[in-house]
Amino acid sequence: MLGIKNKKRKKKKKKKIQFTEIENKTTELFGQEKIKEFNHLLKENNSKKTAEELIKIYFAAGISFSLISIGISSLFELNLLFSVLLFFFCMVFPALLHYFFHLFLFEKNKREKEKIVPDILLQASIFPKGTSIIKIMKYISEADYGLMSLEFKKAFNETEKGKTVEKALNGISFRCKSEIISRAMNLLIQGNKSGVEMNKVFKETAEDILETQSIIQERIASVFIQKYTLILAGGLIVPMLLGLITGFVNEMNFLGINELGLGMPAEERKEIIETALTANQIYILEYALIASFFISQQEGNTKKAFIYALILIPLGIISYNIALLA
Residue 122 in contact with residue 157, Cβ under 8 Å? Predict the structure, then answer.
């Protein structure tokens, strides 16, 4: 019996060691800070999985989809460039899709919270002089302020467990990752520390945030149109048009022209068409890279150019080849 128990313990230890090794390799590959950021994103989106666990799932899904892409390439006898891009796209697509879903969800929740901040500051400004910040926090946590009520509820519960007001409010700033929310929390902390009348400051800040949000919304609307026009053009419209035109030219019958002794020989024409096919794909590649860089510049984060390129290049080549075969 003891021998069986010892074997079970050894197996458990081996599993723990293997799991730790996988976590360490994952951290080395993606960087400790990036893993922390992703874990924070998942936690705020109430995900039950950690970043380390999801990366392993992404890897398995990527291999599965890549094997399917190899089968498709063999079945339809696709050219080498298209096959490689399809393989690469299938490898990274599941991970990118899931990551962008969580990023979109987090940003959506953040925008909802930011919209409520002016209301919270206006509410704080009408409390009688001398009202404690704890009382304000409790009121907001129980009022109908959506996601911000939940944030204040967390902060209020933390103060009841012994955390200081400053740390609890800074916790809201840390979780939300928003300059607007951080500014509001700093004002509440400042009012709590100084003990001076902050009602006027809260009101003025709320009005300032409302004006700023209005300007930002207008800017986002104009950037949104430009951004998705470039994405649609680089990933679908331009490649599909090139593919359709090239396919139409390939299907044209030049035999009658050759018999009349007009135009160039069939072999030269074939070489030119093949060169044009390669040039089209190079053009799609260049267009996707330029579009990715331009979109990332608009967003103020040039690092995102690589992510957009990972999506636009394979999508453009796939769209082109589908239109070419149609």
Answer: no
